[in-house]
Amino acid sequence: MPDPIDVHVGSRVRLRRTLLGLTQDGLGQALGLTFQQIQKYERGTNRIGASRLVEIANVLGVEPAYFFDEMPEEIEGYGKKGMADEATPFEAESGYSKRETIELVRVFEKITDPSVRARLMDLVLAIGDAEQEEVNRSSGADD
After folding, report:
1. Among 2, 39, 52, 108, which is least packed by CB within 10 angstroms?
2. Where are the domains of the chain?
């Protein structure tokens, strides 16, 4: 079973790679690796060594610390005495595991006009708020 920290780091590699529109093969070629090795890194099956993590960070245009950002509290305490709970990987807790979410972020980043970005953001927020209100009404009606 993969270490939860390796799973989190791998999911952040996948997130950044996908946001940049890179394939596993493309990242592998940039690093002199096969796409299968990239798959294993992204799943947390193979641990990424420190020097390799710096190489990946350089190719993906981020600092190595990026791969540890947004680490769930359960994982942050992983391995310390008294931590008995099973840690949940980052992707399972966030919307970033959904391909359409990643694609939406990628496309949004391509919009260069600030007013268009702001209007789109307003639209998405309004739709999200309306959906949440509907969920709240539905759950309140059942009580």
Report:
1. 108
2. 4-98, 111-143
Give the Cα-Cα-Cα angle 15, 90, 134 (nearest 5 degrees).
95
Q: Provide the residue count of the chain.
A: 143
Distance CA 19, CA 13 (A): 10
Top CATH class, 4-98: mainly alpha
The CA distance from 22 to 138, in Å, is 41
Q: For residue 97, what are its two tokens?
A: 């595991």
| Distance in angstroms (rounded) separating the CA atoms of residues 4 and 14 | 15
Task: Please list, in sequence order, all residues whose beta carbon lies within 8 angstroms of the beta carbon of residue 52, skipping any fewer than 6 positions away.
Answer: 31
CB 39 within 8 A of CB 89: no
Q: Is 89 exposed, middle or buried (0-12, 13-18, 19+ CB in 10 A)?
A: buried
pLDDT in tens, 34-61: 999 999 999 999 999 999 999 999 999 9
CA–CA separation, 74 and 80 (whole Å): 11
Span 86-118, pLDDT tens digits: 544 444 445 555 677 777 888 888 889 989 988
Which one-letter DSSP state was computed for residue 67? G
